[in-house]
Design goal:
The complex is a heterodimer. By secondary structure, chain A is an alpha/beta fold. Chain A is built from five helices and eight strands, in the order βαββββαβαβαβα. In chain B, a hairpin with a 4-residue loop joins strand 1 and strand 2. The longest helix of chain B is centred in the middle third of the chain and has 24 residues. Classes of the chains: A alpha/beta, B alpha+beta. Chains A and B meet through strand 2 of A and helix 2 of B.
């Protein structure tokens, strides 16, 4: 069976690399560099995250993009041939939502593929709920779910839901 | 001398040793320009690309067990873009025309990158 390419995108600090690491463990191929700006974290992705894993009968090839806009040249490179988009947004950083909307529009206009939005960091302070994020992004509620990207089972559940959407299963 | 000036001095001596260099970029490892002599309009993108190239190059070197990363060389019909690591915080990238003596360039640039590492 053909591998299923899934793109993981979203603004900086949404948990894309955390998700790759929780799904792939030691096998996760990441490219992190020390952050020189105050991002609320020590490192940031400069090229990509990559790894493969089985989801049901499918072999998923996971590609994560760098979240910072200065690395947007990587977005199209990595999006090429993707069959699904897992888009992460930090629920506790509502000021990132306008950028999230631009970024999501960018990906879906160039690569109209099935997508799922994951709202992360819901346990931190006053976070927007998945329902509020859906309203803001003007997306159907069933396409937006909350998840803790650091927890494998939650990350996997989101990925499995996206794979269902991408393969036409319901 | 401020750190900025020290880096500029370092770039000047690198340019003297390798006069054919057409552009020098010193950037943070996460892709923000620090000191450079590329046109301002291009600097942000070049710094980001240098960081991406370094991050990816280091990853490939580790994955293929090539040993310690030395540099990434991108060669086009009209020239080169070579990316060196300057400690864990920095990147040094050089643009060069076709026909540049890469052996000499590596020698000088690796030395400059070592100095940069201490400055950053």
């Amino acid at each position: 069976m053909e591998p299923l390419k899934v793109l993981v995108a979203g603004p900086v600090g949404a948990g894309k690399t955390a998700l790759a690491k929780s799904l792939l463990g030691e096998e996760a191929l990441t490219t992190e560099a020390k952050a020189s700006e105050d991002l609320g974290k020590e490192t940031t992705t400069v090229a990509l995250d990559f790894g493969t894993l089985a989801v049901g009968p499918y072999r998923v090839h996971l590609f994560g993009v760098p979240g910072q806009e200065r690395f947007d040249f990587m977005w199209d490179v990595l999006a090429e041939g993707a069959l699904g988009l897992l888009f992460l947004v930090a629920g506790d950083r509502p000021h990132h939502l306008p950028e999230a909307r631009r970024m999501l529009d960018y990906f879906l206009s160039r690569h109209p593929v099935p997508y799922l939005v994951g709202v992360t960091r819901l346990d931190l302070g006053r976070a927007w709920t998945p329902g509020e994020v859906a309203l803001y992004l003007r997306l159907p509620e069933e396409r937006v779910m909350g998840l803790d990207a650091r927890k494998r089972e939650e990350a996997f559940r989101a990925l499995a839901r996206l794979v269902e959407l991408a393969t036409g299963g319901e | 001398m401020t750190r900025q000036e020290e880096i500029q001095t370092l770039i000047r001596s690198l340019r003297q040793a390798v006069p054919e260099v057409s552009g020098v970029m010193v950037a943070s490892a996460d892709g923000l320009p620090m000191v450079h002599d590329f046109p301002e309009g291009e600097a942000a993108r070049i710094a980001a690309m240098a960081a991406t190239s370094l991050g990816l190059g280091k990853r490939i070197a580790t994955t293929l067990r090539l040993g310690e990363f030395q540099e990434t060389v991108i060669r086009g019909q009209n020239g080169y873009f070579v990316v060196y690591e300057a400690g864990e915080k920095g990147v040094l990238a050089l643009a060069l025309p076709t026909g540049a003596n890469l052996g000499l360039v590596h020698l000088e640039a690796r030395e400059a990158a070592r100095h940069l590492k201490d400055l950053l």
